[in-house]
Amino acid sequence: MNTTEFLNITSLIVPDRTAIVFDGKRFSFQELEERVKKLANALAGMGVRAGDRIASMQVNCNENIETYFAAAKLDAVYVPLNFRSSPEEIEYMINDSKPKILITGERYVSMVDDIKENLTSVDGFVVMDDASAEGWESYEQLLSTSSGEDMYPMGDEDDLTMVMFTAGTTGSPKGVMLSHDSFASYLLANVSPPDLESEEKNILTVPLYHIAGVQAVMAAIYGGRTLIIQRQFEPVEWMTLVQEEKANRAMMVPTMLKMLMDHQEFEKFDLSTLEVITYGAAPMPVEVIKRAISKFPGTFFINAFGQTETAATITMLPPEDHILEGSEEEIEKKLNRLTSIGKPLSDVEVRIVNENGGEVDVGETGEIVAQGPRLMKGYWNQQEATTEALRGGWLYTGDLGYFDEDGYIFLSGRAKDFIKRAGEMVSPEEVEQVLHSHPSIDEAAIIGVPDVDWGERVRAIVVAKVGATIDKEEVMAYCKDRMASFKKPESVVVVEELPRNPLGKVLKRVLREEFSYPLED
After folding, report:
1. Which of 5, 175, 461, 467 makes a 20 to 30 Å CA pair with 275?
2. Could you give the CA distance from residue 53 to residue 46 in angstroms, rounded to a whole number?
């Protein structure tokens, strides 16, 4: 299915239902569809044709959503840019994807103007926020003067609809090529279409340059859910929006959930309308999710695991595995499952393989590979990287993990982050889970330190809880009592905070650069 059908269908079934709540504005699904039609005509008037790229850079807003669907109506390709990137990174992504049109928020105009002469492909510049700037078209002015005639795309489900750049935590960002079916295959199998009798409201906080944000938008549009959009995550504003708009669903990353519960005003807000909180995009410490389960009574939790390259969720830990009830043995089993990423969804095949591509035994660690219609088409302009990631119809995710006897998948870490100590493989995530259970440790990350005798040795980088003091020797002894001796940290470094990307993933590369000095025996 072409993704334009998501909005077409919903605007016909529930035209008057609120589609978007943002910054004091409300748009119904019919109004959203009308704005998309006008933008598509305006972009066509600026010379956009099938296959052309349209890049967008702005915090979360309705214009980003409109730009995607307008691009899809023209059989053009949408390129969301990470607004947190440096000017050099923005220049690289633009020149790599070669968009014909660049649409940005007013705050980014001066930065783009500084690099304009280096941008080789952009013919038209459009500024949002009902603003104006020299050499830029006004987004709202374009809509006000454009035709509302519908545009009918010719592309099918296999055609390219989006190039989404990875975070680029190592090296230059890679453009992940996603087709219409990358999104449609997931939605048709896992999301119900609009219901005339029931309404849902979904608060959107994760950024729209990230696959989790895009998946949330696609699901809301197809499912007829109202999107309550937050520009960027801020705890008090988030809680205010949930309370005032009576949000039913939310997508969170672990750091956001933790920030909410740690906030001094958390108990002042009524968040009882939340029925479902989906979390993912970064590992969730079990102590944090246990606390969340108790702090949000009556709310169902879902752990969703996927990558930009998979376009959407491929494994899920469902709500029933978050309900810590039953016998002591059943609760213990569920507590263990909280450290997993659940089971593969029914419409995708997931295996765990060794270095030769053969399936490993239950309990044995290998690389997680996936197969299905939602996988990326490849990396934009990077054939070698595409060949490495896509082999024989399987996506090699770079994530390591293992199946337990019940079919649940447990992550062991990224392949590049695994530590090889004297021939023994050490999973950073396994050690980090133990560290997170320590009463004085708030956050923890594990890296390997190069060593002449052992190859690598294990180092823990930890953040103390407020008011706590960390005894490094005691921490190492704590870990030794809870895991195989070769896995325990052999040194501990205490820092004020861990470096993270905007979605909460710890930047191991930064930690290795700063803390990979040799251990002193």
Report:
1. 5
2. 13
Alpha-carbon 375 to chain mean position: 15
pTM reported for the whole predicted model: 0.85
DSSP secondary structure code for residue 107 in this structure: G
* Radius of gyration of the chain measured on its C-alpha atoms: 24
120 CB burial (10 A radius; 0-12, 13-18, 19+)? exposed
Which tens digit of pLDDT belongs to each residue from 312-345?
899 999 999 999 988 999 999 999 999 999 999 9
Q: How many CB atoms lie within 10 A of CB 44?
A: 17
> Rounded to an integer, what is the distance from CA 373 to the centroid of its chain?
19
Closest CA to 186 of 211, 209, 212, 219: 219
Cβ-contact 244, 270 below 8 angstroms: no
26 three-state secondary structure: strand
CA distances 233 to 84, 133, 411, Å, are 14, 28, 27
pLDDT of residue 423: 63
Q: Give the three-class secondary structure for 147.
A: coil
Assess whether pLDDT exceeds 50 at residue 168. no
Beta-bridge mates of residue 420: 425
The band of 169, judged by pLDDT with boundaries at 50, 70 and 90, is: very low
The DSSP call for residue 340 is S
Sheet holding 491-494, edge to edge: 441-451, 455-464, 491-494
Query: 412: which 2 tokens?
Result: 């062991």
Q: Phi and psi at residue 127, in whole multiples of 5°?
A: -110, 135
| Pairwise CA distance, residues 179 & 370, whole Å | 17
Q: What is the distance between the alpha carbons of residues 423 and 371, in angstroms, rounded to a whole number? A: 31
Phi, psi of 496 (to 5 degrees): -75, -35
Both tokens of 296, joined, read: 């949000």
- The Cα–Cα gap between 307 and 182 comes to 12
Could you read off the pLDDT of 184-216 as tens digits, one per residue? Answer: 999 999 999 999 999 999 999 999 999 999 999
Tens digits of residue pLDDT in 29-56: 999 999 999 999 999 999 999 999 999 9
512 within 8 A of 493, measured Cβ to Cβ: no
Most confident of 385-394, 427-436, 499-508: 385-394
CA distance 312 to 216: 9
Residue 427, token pair as written in the block: 């999973």
For residue 6, what are the CA distances in angstroms to 13, 189, 311, 395?
11, 14, 16, 27
- Reduced to 3 states, what is the DSSP secondary structure of residue 321? helix
